[in-house]
């Protein structure tokens, strides 16, 4: 995935009313944006592809994603019908933001959370969100009071979910060390299997479902080198064995190891070995071809 400039979404709701309901069509796209309100996204049909802080979140039908205030997010192609409820924190915390219930709410919305479909169904969360939406669309006398009351009920139900019933810090939160290791291992395995192909960063990002800029950052932190450096070093290591033991021409070896021309192969080989492929072959006692 590429990257786009995010923007602050203003005028998200009426100043006098702290709740907004959005019901999308069968396909929904929205550019990167952020806002100060909490956003609860229910996947009503198909699935959803949401980029959250440069991390792709793929949701299944029936799942819920809670997005904390200030998070940059966008809705990508492949996103189906959604029910979204957005609300301001201060509406629920009121004038006593330090009370125990208010602290429970702050803890709930301090990270991004995915609630699996079976827990959504078990806790009737989708039904509660739909009830808020029905009040908003019906606009019967007292509907705003009813929406507020039903939102309180929804938040209480969410607060009472046990930690094991939600997937905290996914996506967009900090990766645990085990998740980082698994991710880096998957990237390296992919590179080592496909090194002989003309790989680009976009290909690797698509395979790992990561934004390519976040992928590069995480890989550099873990391995101390860029993704392309790792790929080129692996290619050169394979090529060196062939230069030592094979009879093919240097051009054939270059192409078989993922280099599309001899100039780039010579340049990168010299970068890591201090000599050209032909010089390396001569030093090893073989004749350059």
Molecular structure report:
Helix 4 packs antiparallel against helix 5. The protein is built from twelve helices and eleven strands. It folds into two domains: about 160 residues, Jelly Rolls; about 110 residues, Homeodomain-like (Arc Repressor Mutant, subunit A), CATH 1.10.10. About 45% of the residues lie in helices and about 15% in strands. With about 290 residues, the chain is α+β, with helices and mostly antiparallel strands. This is AraC family transcriptional regulator. It comes from Paenibacillus cineris. InterPro entries: AraC-bd, Homeodomain-like_sf, HTH-like, HTH_AraC, HTH_AraC-typ_CS, RmlC-like_jellyroll, Tscrpt_reg_AraC-type_HTH. Keywords: DNA-binding, Transcription, Transcription regulation.
Topology:
Blueprint: E1 7-8, E2 19-23, E3 30-34, E4 38-43, E5 47-52, E6 55-60, E7 64-67, E8 73-75, E9 82-87, H1 89-93, H2 100-108, E10 113-115, H3 117-122, H4 125-138, H5 143-159, E11 167-168, H6 177-194, H7 201-208, H8 212-223, H9 227-245, H10 250-256, H11 262-273, H12 277-283
Parallel strand pairs: 1-3
Antiparallel strand pairs: 2-9, 3-8, 4-7, 4-9, 5-6, 5-8, 7-10, 10-11
Number of strands: 11
> Judging from the principal axes of the Cα atoms, what is the shape?
elongated
Strand percent estimate: 15-25%
Number of domains: 2
Largest sheet: 6 strands, antiparallel
Given helix and strand content, the structural type is: alpha+beta
H-E order: EEEEEEEEEHHEHHHEHHHHHHH
Number of helices: 12
Radius of gyration: 26 Å
CATH topology (fold) name of the largest domain: Jelly Rolls
